[in-house]
Amino acid sequence: MCSYSDVIGSYMLQFNFVNRVIIAYIHDRVMLERTMPKSAKSKRRPTGRPSPKPKPYHHGDLRRVLIDAALQLVEEGGPETLSVREAARRAGVSPGAPFRHFPSRDALMTAVAEEAQRRFRAEINAALADDPAGDPLARFRALGLAYLRWAMRNPAHFEVISTGRYFDHDKAAGLSRDNAELIGLTERTMADAFAQGQLRSSDLKRVQIAGRALVYGFARMNIDGHFPRWGIADTEAERTAEAIIDLFIEGIAKPQGRA
Hints:
By secondary structure, the protein is mostly helical. The chain has helices spanning 4-35, 38-42, 62-77, 84-91, 105-129, 136-153, 155-162, 173-195, 204-223, 237-252. The protein folds into 2 domains: 59-103, Arc Repressor Mutant, subunit A (Orthogonal Bundle); 106-252, Tetracycline Repressor, domain 2.
């Protein structure tokens, strides 16, 4: 029978043998790594499933989508509620995606103002297309009504384009140009009315300022919630607008039959 010391000695011999084998394997592996070319070290056996490539950014016309989302935000909560992050969320893109087109909230607000102005101008152009060119006062009436109807149906958008609080007018070249064209259109209309003997006064600038004050003031009354205290219901607002424009034109028009 083997003694206890013989068993221990046998295990120690086996352990020493295994240990030497492991050390020899590690030594050979290290030497192989040192002599192997770098290109060989970096190679990896293909796994059979290539890693997915990053998808390119794509959202069609993201600028258009963001402006539409921003217009909706302004319409729902007013200009102060506009947020680039919320516009991005509604457009279905990451919070950083809008900055590809709009580096700041002010830039997005400027784009909102320009789009609102474009829609405002389209409303006026459509109204003038239906009126006879030979009657300047009729065209002036159509222009004023289009102004008020759009302003009352889009009060938040009108507030954006009619005040200087929400964006830098100097950076909104398209809006400034469009404003100048509308002013020029009004001036020409008044000049034509005077040339045809339709006006009482020859002071066209004052007539034009009075007309501007009328439509702008009425639009602001709507935005600021003054109609109820004057007994004007929502359903009567547009009819009232038409009535005050007719009253204004009656006041500036020269009575028929007088030279």
